[in-house]
Amino acid sequence: MTKKVDPIDRKNRIVEAAFQVIYQSGFEKTTLRKIAQNAGLSLGSVQYFFPKQKDIYLFAMDVIYQRFEERMRNVEQPEEGVFEYAVRMVKQIVQVGTKEERIENDIWVKFSLMAVMNSDYQGRKDEFREINITFAKEILEMLQDNNYLDNHTNIEDSAVSLTVFVHGLVFESVIYTHLYNDQVVEKEVRAYLRKVCH
Fold first, then answer.
1. CA nearest 104: which of 138, 54, 70?
2. Residue ranges, CATH 1.10.357.10, the chain
3. What is the mean pLDDT of the chain?
4. Which pTM does this prediction carry?
């Protein structure tokens, strides 16, 4: 009797293997065969769920963003108040506390660069930027509602600036891994938000 395969578990196993291969080899050297080997599965098993390499890449990026959104939902508001809450929220985007978080940042940077040159991924890259800008707006609106920002602050422009800052910090933490730990990221986020607030 054949064991029934849980499709969710199998897809998760495949995507975790994909993360490892992409992290070690980059998108350009990643193949479905390498992912299958890393997952301990046959190529056919991987292709059953992800017929094309593009399918697994898009799924992998969706998983990263689902994890990001889940972290956002789980940020607890500290007793110290709204500013500290904003710091914690922004820090969730630049996760450097664990190897898994660093791998996610690395893959996000690699995907973004690949998407610049490959039109198949342009739409997803743009969607993710909009998600980040929306998230930045929510943080800034919260700060404004609690009198940390001037009422005349242009939230749209400030959200773009905050997104650029965060993307730059993620990029730096990937390129210069040894320079960025949780404390350094928090210090940078706190300094940025202090400049924005009055």
1. 70
2. 57-196
3. 90
4. 0.85
68: closest CA among 101, 114, 103? 101
Counting every residue written for the chain, the total comes to 198
Structure tokens at 107: 């893959």
For 151, counting Cβ atoms within 10 Å of its Cβ (0-12 exposed, 13-18 middle, 19+ buried), the class is: exposed
pLDDT digits (tens, 9 = 90+) for 150-181: 888 999 999 999 999 999 999 999 999 999 99
Task: Name the CATH superfamily housing domain 1-51.
Answer: Homeodomain-like (1.10.10.60)
- Could you say which of 3.90.1580.10, 3.20.20.10, 3.90.1150.10, 1.10.357.10 is the CATH number of the domain covering 57-196? 1.10.357.10
pLDDT in tens, 45-61: 999 999 998 899 889 88
**Residue 128, Cβ neighbours under 10 Å: how many?**
19
Per-residue pLDDT for 2 more than 70?
no
Residue-wise pLDDT tens digits, 132-151: 999 999 999 999 999 999 88
Q: Where in the chain is the domain with CATH 1.10.10.60?
A: 1-51
